[in-house]
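Field notebook, page 458. I keep forgetting to write these up properly, so this time I am using the form the group agreed on. The chain and the ligand, N-(aminocarbonyl)-beta-alanine, are recorded exactly as supplied. Prediction of the bound pose follows.
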Amino acid sequence: MSILLQNGRVVTADSDAVCDILVEGESIAAIGRNLLTPLGGQVIDCTGKIVVPGGIDPHVHLEMPFMGTFSSDTYETGTRAALHGGTTTVIDFILQKQGHSLRSALEEWQGRATGNAVGDYSFHMAVTDFNPSTKVEIAAIVAEGITSFKAFMAYKGSLMIDDAQLIGLMQEVKKHGGLVTAHATNGDVIDTLIAQHRAAGMLSPRYHYLSQPEVTEAEASGRFADLANYAGTEAYIVHMTCEGALNQVRNATRRNQRVLAETCIQYLLLDASLYEHDFEGAKVVMSPPLREKKDQAALWAGLNQGLVQVVGTDHCPFLWEQKLLGKGDFSKIPNGHPAVEHRMELLFSEGVGKGKITLQKFVEVTSTNAAKIFGMFPRKGTISIGADADLVVIDPHKQHVISAATHHMNVDYSAYEGWELTGKIDTVLLRGQVAVDAGETKVSKGYGQFVKRSKTSF
Ligand code: URP
Ligand code: ZN
Ligand code: ZN
């Protein structure tokens, strides 16, 4: 099947021109002006529209077992919702169970994803118990195309590893050319503050926020950068929220170290005032928590300064009935919020539309940089001959309103309810198939494929 996307403004991280794109099978076959309409093929008129590479969200949690429950999007619902929002590939986190092997965790996640995903996906491996037997599994995990490893520096007792394990993980992953990523917050300090608040009867969602002050993230980010520098490992900080953590990344550049950083759409657009609305604040209980306006300004600047390379979501939805598990105690509210469907449109409207970032920066941080950092470039993350035809057609002027009543994520609220956005995704192609058109899903469960990744090329 051939598809010609005609006369769109085609934007990549390093080019911007009005032209046509010819898709043959799963890939891009030609890019140019006045390409011939393929015999029997489909033509999509992109006049007045913007065409960008399919989005890559490298931070999602689908059916994640966490805090006594599971995040509410499955591989089917989560990747379908992602496609509606122009994200054609997601990277989920496999979580090793402490005391168990990496291989058994991989098989568990493969069982969830295989045959169920609608959009493409890959995995990071979260090592929650680095020990001699885990150590010998790292090479085989890299060989499976899972080249990034995650360390949780918080959530003691379930996911956290200590510094001894962290340095060991870094040394081993380095041997195999992989990338170490971290949830960089100081778990011990956070647990102490949680205990203090609970003992004083301070139990509302606001105390979730007050138990994770900026210093807990800044300190752990600096420690992570220092250890990675010592180990000589490529390092990537997930879901960075604040100025203090960003300054640690900036400091690392002063010794010519590169620490890569991801922020998430919510940290750019939402702030901690949402915790003031009593239990409603549970909707945005996530870790790290939302921060202050000054942190948002620092993060926007960090994107433009090239210190923050990626905007993900940390999509980890819980239904309202799940959030109610923490009604009388903030420490029992499942941490996470839904966003995978709206990342691209939110960033387009509030970032590009309001002059905070350029359109090319938008492409970099929603797609290209993640493809390079996580070893998928140039198959994904760009528009070039031979690349997967993962393409997103945006109507830059169309206005729409976000609502839980119309979104595709399996969750019954949205932190962005009622937000009016300018710029709407019209059509999404995934590996040469129209996956979404005019709000309708055109591919089914099972179409999504595992993306085997190479080493970082950023
Ligand atoms: O609140 C969050 N972020 N939930 C998901 C787990 C994590 O820390 O990424
Ligand atoms: Zn995290
Ligand atoms: Zn996460």
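OBSERVATIONS:
- The mean pLDDT is 98.
- Residues 87 and 307 are 23 Å apart (CA to CA).
FOLLOW-UP: compare against the apo run.
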